[in-house]
Design a protein that fits this description.
Elements lengths: L7 E2 L6 E5 L9 E4 L1 H7 L1 H8 L14 E4 L4 H11 L12 H13 L10 H13 L6 H10 L2 H14 L2 H4 L14 H27 L18 H17 L15 H9 L23 H13 L7 H14 L9
Parallel strand pairs: 1-3, 2-4
Antiparallel strand pairs: 2-3
Length: 335
């Protein structure tokens, strides 16, 4: 086999050789294909191969060879098998990584419609994978977007919002990182910051109430002028001790918090705050009712229940269009 002879002949009568992958791998990924099949399948390939681009067929009868150094060989292999009728060789299941790579490739070539017969079983297999994974599936967000699957997109976006730590989100903000739907990661990051700031504000406000001067309204239900500082001091000391044990004292700024929304919520709702309780003799005031835990938990739950949706009307409209494009006979949008 010569250096330029195709390693994989997807079409034995093909007229085009694709050299795929990084420059140091081009000679090991040579695919013999039918140029007309690719052109019928993809408007990008059509313009590339039959337009005025450098990839067009040579006029001097030289071998027609096109370099695709930026394409993933495994994904392009799957794509060509579909377009060239080798359906039995198309994988029946997909991992998230493989499906993400394939959909980014078909998106680039404007040919995602080729995947239609395999979309549902592939989505079933990657959703099973995400259920067993402790890592929020950022790549699944793109997959749901490319397939116009609104319910999957919304569920994945909210999971990322609640479960992603800061370090996992930051690399995927523009201009670096994974290919993502427009403005989604930015919106998730914004809402995550607002939610964490709201959590921390609950505790900042509580600290402020426990430190008020004698003339101001006091947190202790039995407070009197210059009296019962012991109750508030006990609560303040217990709360700051617990926050320190959770590495949250002094209370940080929201952009300093690495934990996910769920992790921070769990830490704050698991604080055990002590009070001085009922003092002797019997019948004296019961300061256990001054314990702020119930108040703090109610405020935290209220914040969690009011977290806004990171998905905008623009996202819904775009996914409706994509779903209808991939399912032209279905008059409804995929929920």
């Amino acid at each position: 086999m010569s250096e330029c002879e195709p390693r994989i002949k997807f079409d034995p009568r093909g007229d085009l050789t694709l050299r795929v992958g990084p420059p140091d791998e081009l000679t090991s990924n040579l695919f013999l294909v039918c140029s007309r099949t690719l052109a019928r399948t993809s408007p990008v390939f059509d313009r590339m191969l039959y337009g005025s681009f450098a990839e067009a067929k040579p006029v001097d009868d030289k071998d027609w060879v096109v370099d695709l150094p930026n394409d993933d060989p495994a994904s392009l292999t799957t794509f060509i098998r579909m377009t060239h009728g080798s359906f039995t060789e198309v994988p029946k299941t997909m991992t998230i990584d493989r499906l993400y790579a394939l959909t980014t490739l078909t998106h680039y070539y404007d040919a995602t419609q080729v995947l239609i017969p395999w979309i549902d079983p592939w989505l079933a297999s990657v959703e099973d994978e995400t259920r067993d994974s402790n890592v929020p599936p950022l790549k699944l967000l793109w997959i749901a977007w490319e397939f116009g699957r609104k319910a999957l997109f919304k569920a994945t976006a909210r999971r990322i919002l609640f479960e992603c730590p800061a370090s996992l989100l930051e690399p995927y903000l523009p201009p670096e990182g994974l290919q993502m739907p427009p403005d989604v990661i930015e919106k998730i990051t914004e809402i995550r910051h607002q939610t964490i700031e709201a959590f921390l504000r609950v505790f900042r406000d509580m600290v402020a109430m426990l430190l008020v001067v004698d003339e101001s309204p006091r947190w202790c239900r039995h407070a009197s002028y210059m009296g019962h500082h012991r109750c508030e001091s006990m609560i303040l000391g217990s709360m700051t001790f617990c926050l320190a044990r959770a590495s949250l004292w002094p209370l940080p700024e929201a952009d300093e918090v690495e934990e996910s929304v769920v992790e921070l919520y769990t830490k704050l709702t698991n604080l055990v705050i002590h009070d001085i309780g009922r003092q002797s003799p019997k019948g004296a005031e019961d300061h256990s009712e001054c314990n702020p835990v119930r108040h703090l938990m109610e405020e935290m739950k209220k914040i969690l229940n009011e977290v806004p949706d990171p998905i905008t009307d623009m996202h819904w409209k775009q996914m409706d269009l994509q779903y209808k494009r991939l399912n032209p006979s279905d008059n409804s949008s995929c929920s």
